[in-house]
Specification:
Distance between the termini of chain B: 41 Å
Number of domains of chain A: 1
Number of strands of chain B: 2
Shape of chain B: globular
Distance between the termini of chain A: 12 Å
Strand order of the largest sheet of chain B: 1-2
Number of helices of chain A: 14
Strand content of chain B: under 5%
Order of helices and strands of chain B: HHHHEEHHHHHHHH
Largest sheet of chain A: 2 strands, antiparallel
Radius of gyration of chain B: 19 Å
CATH architecture of chain A: Orthogonal Bundle
CATH class of chain A: Mainly Alpha
Helix content of chain A: over 70%
Number of helices of chain B: 12
Oligomer: heterodimer
Number of domains of chain B: 1
Helix content of chain B: over 70%
Radius of gyration of chain A: 21 Å
Structural class of chain B: mainly alpha
């Protein structure tokens, strides 16, 4: 019995498509565009296909909102090194801002949502500003506290509708608008963020994650970079929150619920951190799964957590990285 | 007077809640987010044994439940955490997921409503300093202080205790002296979980066994540990006195709604002003900021 090992080699096609030869033939172009088109077309066609199953059409909306949160978590955790366990903070702030604009000031919904995203993001950044020097576990703990803190404050002061929340938000006109607003937003932020992290600023952000002292030594303010990153991430998160508030026509303290923190993290772990598209795919698996398991009540959280722990232990790279490897490389057994 | 007495009781309750969390973090460097879940699990196990196994003495049920919780804690490390040691974020997510799974599993399994409660050790109340204090609270104070003393003696004068401290101070040097790092981590998780269980047994007779209490215990434990400086036991006790009195004061001045707000604000403020906590060391400062 000879010792064998597995060898991984890049496919010829992959190597060819890295340079100018990418546009030399149909195969190369398809190889590059295939996965992207699959995602875009698949997502765009989803509401049309699910015309057959009206119940599941509702799930698309919430699934895409979670996908936005997952992108925001993945960006912060894997590109900036700030693990934010309080994704619910973003949804809550975004939702409440949008509700305030829409109900109290009567701003129409299509203006209230972007406005809420921007002001909400500014608000979140301002709140998180003092915590930005913290690292690792400490940042995670503090961000975990924020949604809880705001829930308690709203309960205690009985402001913004108290425990009843703000009701009577306008919803988006027509179910197709509802679907496509969020689907386009997911695609835009997905590809936008991919571009963003590969720009110069993304490089600096990754530098902040890996070695912030060297970033400081290069004369770049680490805190300023983190502020930008948190603003971008909370922009996405707040938009998701505002969208959810308008979807349910209600903004209450359940926008600060743990679900909005847990599911994005779980889907990032499952989908593969650091790929941005992985978390989106993770939500597309987890959210329908959780709808499916609705029958089990809170037991679905147990199933979730079991899946999560399993992935962390046995497949910590996540699905997306696994599939990327299969797509770009082939494996063979060779003698040692 | 009222504030002083209730402040002391509340502080000791808080420090009992957080002692296990603090111990696990200081030795194994694992933030055990399943702490609250272990707390509730013990309470539920005692309840099950007392109510379903007729004839089992209360004290035996308590011992069995604490032992079982210690084993659960050890298993969590041995089966899960050992594989992801050193990856802080994965540790947090994994322990948090385990805790969530236990709590929500219990909720699903029927732990709902106000029907679950443990009997106090010794019913009744006594009049002290012009206040009516039930015996359970007095027992808590007494046992709490006893626990601190025993824990102090354990870590100073027993071989295992010294090994635990060795690992906590300098893992590499301790390993060179033949102390098994994984073994001590297993032991520390077992002790930490047992402490969570012990706290549960002492404190749950004051109220009902509800799932939400598990989350609250976790939050209070984190609050106390962060303020005291993660990994510093003296700091844990001082911080629990600070938060304990702050809570009682806010309750006396305003409404009890603000109890949690005080704890949360205290965490955020401490992290901002003195990130290593009140008694954290310089080394920890580097880790944090």
């Amino acid at each position: 019995m000879e010792a064998m090992r597995k060898e991984r080699i890049d496919r010829g096609l992959k190597v060819r498509t890295e340079g100018i030869y990418a546009i030399s033939g149909v195969r190369e172009i398809l190889y590059l565009l295939g996965p992207r088109l699959l995602l875009i077309v698949g997502l765009m066609a989803l509401p049309l296909v699910l015309e057959l199953a009206p119940y599941w059409k509702r799930v698309i909306n919430i699934m895409c909102a979670y996908a936005l949160l997952a992108i925001s978590f993945d960006f912060l955790a894997n590109y900036v090194g700030l693990v934010c366990l309080g994704g619910a903070f973003f949804t809550g702030v975004g939702g409440y801002f949008s509700a305030i604009y829409n109900v109290y000031f009567g701003i129409p919904v299509y203006l209230a949502m972007p406005l809420a995203a921007i002001t909400g993001a500014a608000f979140c950044t301002l709140c998180l500003l003092p915590c930005l020097p913290l690292r690792g576990v400490y940042f995670a703990i503090v961000t975990l506290m924020y949604p809880l803190l705001f829930t308690r404050i709203i309960e205690a002061l009985n402001i913004l509708g108290g425990t009843n929340g703000i009701t009577g938000l306008d919803n988006l006109p027509g179910s197709y608008t509802e679907h496509y607003v969020i689907i386009l937003m997911v695609l835009a932020s997905l590809f936008g963020m991919r571009r963003f992290v590969n720009e110069d600023i993304g490089l600096v952000l990754r530098g902040v994650k890996d070695n912030d002292q060297s970033v400081r030594a290069s004369g770049i303010s680490v805190t300023r970079m983190k502020i930008i990153a948190v603003f971008v991430a909370s922009l996405i998160g707040c938009f998701a929150g505002a969208y959810i508030a308008h979807l349910y026509m209600w903004a209450g303290i359940s926008l600060f619920a743990m679900d909005f923190s847990i599911i994005p993290i779980a889907s990032t772990v499952i989908g593969g951190g650091g790929t941005l598209v992985g978390p989106v795919i993770g939500t597309f698996i987890l959210v329908p799964l959780s709808e499916f398991l609705r029958f089990f009540g809170t037991f679905r959280i147990v199933i979730y957590c079991a899946v999560l722990v399993g992935f962390i232990m046995f497949k910590s790279e996540g699905l997306m990285i696994y599939f990327q490897r299969k797509y770009h490389q082939f494996e063979r057994w060779v003698k040692v | 007077m009222e504030i002083l007495v209730y402040g002391i009781i509340n502080s000791i309750i808080l420090s009992l809640m957080s002692l296990g969390f603090s111990l696990v973090y200081s030795i194994a460097r694992v933030p055990n987010f399943a702490h609250g879940a272990l707390y509730i699990t013990t309470g539920y196990m005692v309840w099950l044994m007392v109510n379903k196994l007729q004839g089992l003495p209360y004290i035996l049920a308590i011992i069995f439940a604490i032992g079982a919780t210690a084993i659960i804690g050890a298993l969590i490390y041995r089966c899960v955490l050992i594989r992801i040691r050193g990856m802080e974020i994965s540790e947090i997510i994994a322990t948090y997921a385990i805790g969530l799974a236990i709590l929500e599993g219990l909720r699903w399994g029927g732990l709902r409503g106000m029907t679950f409660s443990l009997p106090p050790f010794y019913p009744g109340a006594v009049s002290m300093f012009g206040l009516l204090i039930d015996y359970q609270r007095l027992i808590i104070v007494g046992t709490g202080i006893l626990t601190f003393i025993l824990l102090y003696l354990f870590t100073r004068y027993t071989k295992i205790g010294l090994a635990l401290r060795g690992i906590a101070q300098d893992e590499r040097a301790a390993m060179m002296l033949g102390i098994n790092s994984d073994m001590t981590a297993v032991i520390s998780l077992a002790i930490g979980s047992a402490l969570a269980g012990f706290a549960a047994v002492l404190l749950l007779p004051l109220g009902n066994i509800v799932v939400e209490a598990g989350y609250n215990v976790l939050i209070f434990a984190i609050a106390v540990c962060v303020i005291g400086g993660l990994g510093s036991w003296g700091g844990t006790i001082v911080a629990s006195f600070i938060i304990g009195f702050a809570q009682i004061l806010t309750e006396a001045l305003g409404s009890s709604h603000y109890q949690m707000v005080v704890a949360l604000l205290a965490i955020i403020l401490t992290l901002l002003i003195k990130p290593s906590g009140l008694f954290g060391k310089q080394k920890e400062l580097e880790e944090r900021v």
